[in-house]
Design goal:
By secondary structure, the chain is of the alpha/beta class. 22% of the residues lie in helices and 27% in strands. A hairpin with a 2-residue loop joins strand 7 and strand 8.
């Protein structure tokens, strides 16, 4: 399909077009608290009980009566376990006749007898009973979780403390991936001249699941218009977000863009960002259908800005904010006029500073994929960067994976 890059849109404009013409209707499902970690709450969730149900000890010690501590003279040698005091460890309930806890470090015990209590502990007990009231962790009816919140291990722990066993979460958006191209072969096959392995499904699956989607991969679809149309129709029945990988450019067999345009209520072709300019965006039957270019780096970039944005919109999630580092550029960076530019970098460290080494497309893909630790997105109106410039980069790895300065 022939298209004019002068009519292309920016990444932000593309996402706005999709969001303005797509009305996702996320379903909810109930899952156990154990299975809820990493999911997004479909509604507010509240505590079913006070936690704890009764007052408890603030630390390991013994529970006594405050009135008993006021006796003069105070003779602990007559105190016995179960009568004047009981054991009360952290979080323990204890009989109502006791109202004060003394730390175990401040007492001397022998079998069931109390031999002594430090004078400081006696004085402190009159000021602070060291007892946590009922509901000190959470109160019945207290909100434990807000709608669209991503559930962390700590939040899951709070759900259990509030008495929850199953909670409503947003069903993961179903992302259907359709790889296309006569040149593609599957894993385990023997490649011949003109053939290449279909590898992007691994990239799409891993990133989609990391973003919170459920992945459904189609078999390789050859460059046949009827087969492509049937696959697209099937995908629209199954998925919430559709990716058609390949056939997005201007090759003689690039049918996908033309087919998508015919079916779409909204269609734009070409993004003012590189690599990955031939991305096509559309909405068909109230579902985003994204036509991505085949090269893996271009697919990675389109996944990072477009699919990540769509999944976040479906889940009501906040946009990703990556950690950043400051580094000095080791290379001049060429920039295409009128386009945002994605640059991938390996990072080295020396003399207390990071240096960013550009990973150009001329490098082998394993070199780029294995080295990419950080990324820079240069705005459309930004002049080219030069070696020696100090820039802020988004991290694509964990900070602990960076070399030591």
């Amino acid at each position: 399909m022939i298209f004019d890059y002068s009519e292309s849109v920016t990444r932000q404009e593309a996402l706005e077009i999709l969001r303005n013409n797509w009305s996702p209707e996320p379903l909810k499902e109930f899952v156990s608290v154990e299975d809820s970690i990493g999911r997004y709450a479909a509604e507010d969730v509240f505590a079913l009980y006070d936690s704890p149900l009764n007052r408890t000890s603030a630390f390991d010690g013994i529970a006594v009566s405050a009135k008993k501590l006021e006796e003069k003279p105070l003779d602990f040698s007559t105190w016995k376990l179960g009568r004047e005091f009981v054991r009360a460890d952290t979080g323990d309930d204890f009989p109502d006749c006791y109202d004060t806890v003394i730390a175990i470090e401040d007492v001397e015990l022998e079998d069931d007898r109390l031999l002594s209590v430090t004078p400081e502990a006696v004085r402190e007990a009159s000021k602070d009973p060291h007892v946590r009231p009922a509901g000190s962790v959470c109160h019945k009816g207290e909100k434990l979780l807000s709608c669209h919140t991503r559930i962390t291990p700590m939040l899951a722990s709070m759900l259990v403390l509030g008495g929850q066993r199953q909670i409503p979460v947003i069903r993961r958006p179903r992302l259907v991936y359709i790889p296309t191209g006569d040149e593609l072969i599957g894993r385990g096959e023997v490649p011949y001249r003109g053939q290449t392995f279909e590898s992007n499904s691994m990239l799409v699956k891993g990133m989609a699941e990391e973003m919170g989607a459920e992945f459904f991969g189609f078999p390789i679809i050859r460059d046949d218009r009827d087969a492509l149309e049937k696959a697209l129709d099937d995908a629209l029945l199954q998925g919430d977000i559709i990716i058609v990988n390949g056939g997005s450019s201007r090759g003689s067999e690039d049918f996908n863009s033309e087919l998508i345009r015919e079916k779409a209520t909204v269609f734009r072709h070409g993004i003012r960002a590189a690599p990955g300019r031939p991305v096509g965006i559309s909405v068909i039957e109230n579902k985003p259908v994204i036509n991505m270019p085949g090269p893996p780096i271009a697919t990675f970039i389109a996944l990072d800005w477009c699919i990540r944005g769509l999944i976040a919109a479906y889940l009501g999630a906040k946009p990703l904010v990556r950690p950043t580092i400051t580094a000095k550029l080791a290379n001049d960076l060429w920039k295409k006029p009128g386009h945002e530019m994605y640059y991938l970098f390996d990072i080295t460290a020396e003399n207390g500073e990071y240096t960013a080494h550009y990973l150009p497309g001329s490098r082998s893909l394993p070199e780029v994929a294995g080295g990419m630790k950080a990324m820079l997105v240069a705005p459309i109106d930004r002049e080219p960067h030069h070696a020696g410039d100090v820039v802020e980069l988004e991290l694509l790895c964990s900070p602990e994976d960076l070399p030591q300065k």
